[in-house]
Structure formats: C-alpha cells, structure tokens
Write a structure and sequence with these properties.
The protein is mainly alpha-helical. The chain has four helices and two strands, in the order H-E-E-H-H-H. Helix 3 packs across helix 4. The N and C termini lie far apart (32 Å).
C-alpha cells in the first residue's frame, strides 16, 4: 500500500512538492462555493492561505488573529476533521491560547 501511495505522489505531485517549503491539503480555499462542492486540494502557498483566512475574518467581523504557521496548521486540521461525516475532536491546551477562536474561525470556513 505504501509503495502505491509513494508512486502516485511522485507521479502527480512531484513537481509541486519539489518547489514547496511545506505541503498541505485543504478544502476552504474556495470559501464562497457550496460546501458540498468543495474539493480537497493541494496547497503550498502559506501567503495565499493567510490572505484567504484573513478575508474571512474581516467579512465575518471576527477578532483579528495573528496567523502564524502553527495556527494555519491547526485551522487546516480542525476544518478537515469537522468536514468529515461524524467528525469530532477535542482540543486541549492552556487557557487563553486561542482554542475557541481557531474553532470559531474553522467553523466559518
């Protein structure tokens, strides 16, 4: 199974991965499309991701968050899990670390 996945990644994504600092997949880059029609797609541009999330924060009048790489990764994980059928998660961390803010933002995306 692993060999098949590696072969598919090399076949379809090798040129994109070679030029990327970090690789991630998300479905919220086309925010205004119907959630049922969104595709889970390859992303490697953090700046585009930060811009998309920042635009949503401005439109929804949410508190402006500082979107550093770890926050982006957490938002991507939360969105991925909550978009699954019967998807749920427990977010654990210190009080005041932004758990509620990231969850609210992910719910909108």
């Amino acid at each position: 199974m692993c060999a098949k996945v590696e072969k598919l990644v090399e076949q379809y994504l090798s040129d994109k991965i070679a030029n990327a600092d970090e690789v991630f997949f998300c479905s919220f880059m086309k925010v205004r499309t119907d959630p049922d029609n969104r595709t889970y797609e390859f992303q490697s541009d953090y700046q585009r991701t930060i811009t998309t999330i920042g635009d949503v924060m401005k439109e929804e009048s949410l508190v402006q968050l500082v979107l550093f790489k770890d926050a982006i990764k957490h938002i991507i994980r939360i969105c991925r899990i909550t978009n699954l059928e019967k998807g749920h998660l427990i977010i654990v961390g210190l009080g005041g670390s932004g758990k509620r803010s990231l969850c609210a933002l992910s719910a909108i995306l």
